[in-house]
């Protein structure tokens, strides 16, 4: 049976799982210590009192972080995506690239805005970054949204994109480039995004940790950049920006 609702998955699912597991373990140990003290199975020494209190605090922090990451993945990132795409005045016939498309949050939202255009989503499909990340998942979301006819799915690395220079009116990317572990690789991804953007085209990027560095790199290329943030999703502060390539 075909999917009838879009599902954009849980980001960093291993991190979410670890927060839940550690939070539950700390909670159980803290409550167990409290019970042991009440039953006088252990003495009320400084070590047990410290563990009792700190274990509970740690459990609360871990479980709150897990809930925040789930809420960010399921609801809040959709709002940030809309704000990101609203930074452009859409004509409806643009050629769009979603860089690191995952399950298609940006790609599908952009496809809704280009009824006479085309969107390409490209990714290397790492499930460690997004639960259920696969070409089939983005195709299912595109079908559920009714935009499958104008969305193409490719496999490719952001640091060496398989597209010609000046191919796209819009290049979008959301919470992707920070997953490249080295600064040189991130610089290469931004340079590639710039290369495939048409003169007069626009880059729309949201990311955590390094977004302001990307913006400075694009300004050095000659882009007109508008930066917005900080925006708190998943925990680390993020920034979104629009960068226009001179025409």
Kindly describe this structure:
The structure is a single chain. The protein is of the alpha/beta class and 247 residues long. The protein folds into 2 domains: 13-74; 78-244, Rossmann fold (3-Layer(aba) Sandwich), CATH 3.40.50. 45% of the residues lie in helices and 21% in strands. It is built from 6 helices and 7 strands. The protein has a 7-stranded mixed sheet, sandwiched between helices. A hairpin with a 4-residue loop joins β6 (224-232) and β7 (237-244). α2 packs parallel to α3 (105-113). The longest helix is centred in the N-terminal third of the chain and has 40 residues, at 46-85. The radius of gyration is 22 Å and the shape is elongated.
Query: Which class best fits the helix and strand makeup?
Result: alpha/beta
Taking the sheet with the most strands, its summary is:
7 strands, mixed
CATH fold descriptor of the largest domain: Rossmann fold
Overall spatial form = elongated
- State the helicity in percent bands: 40-55%
Strand tally, please? Answer: 7
Rg to the nearest angstrom?
22 Å
For the termini, the CA-CA separation is 47 Å
Number of helices: 6
Low-confidence stretches: none
What is the count of distinct domains?
2
Proper CATH architecture of the largest domain? 3-Layer(aba) Sandwich
